[in-house]
Task: structure prediction
Amino acid sequence: MGRIFTGRGANLLLIARNEEKLGKARQTLEKFRRSPTQLIGTLSVDVSDINDVEQKMKAALDVYGAPDVLVLSAGINKYADHFENITPAMFDEVIKTNLYGPRNMIYTLLAAMKSRRSHIVILSSAAGLFGMFGYTAYGTSKAALLGLSDSLRYELKPLGMKLTVVCPPEVDTPMNLDEVKTLPKEGRAVKSL
Result:
């Protein structure tokens, strides 16, 4: 998605927790720049922390302005396991990143985005549409994200804003490769279909 936006001349601000990964992503995207004046910035933000989001995004608004398109793709699933093995702290970590992360970003940027009639794109998951063995924390977070998105879409429509949710099935990412380490055999069997 970043390559497409960069190739079309858009200014980008990449946000993630890991500064090293942000730097690598920026280097990759710089190859697709259409203009040397095109901005491709990075900002390390913990989207699960509303204070971090508010502080850093308010500063980013001064430099970049409100986004025309806000793509929210942060997510974790490092606790793919039997429900009884997922502690309350583990469950909370997944909910805070996968649900509160997008909520915090939208809440912080919404006032600035209204006048631009911005488009919000949220990456959820097919795991939010139906249950899957070993995905109690992740599936719950993604189902709740769908509920948030469906309700928010009605509020944004009269403002001329759009909200799109994408629910991909299995995506080839390092996160999905790591989850196999803890995913129960029943979950691995379903994923192999």
Q: What stands out?
A: The domain at 68-191 is CATH 3.40.50.720 (Rossmann fold). The chain is about 50% helix and 10% strand. The two ends are 27 Å apart (CA to CA). The helical segments are 2-7, 19-30, 50-64, 88-114, 136-156, 174-179, 185-191.
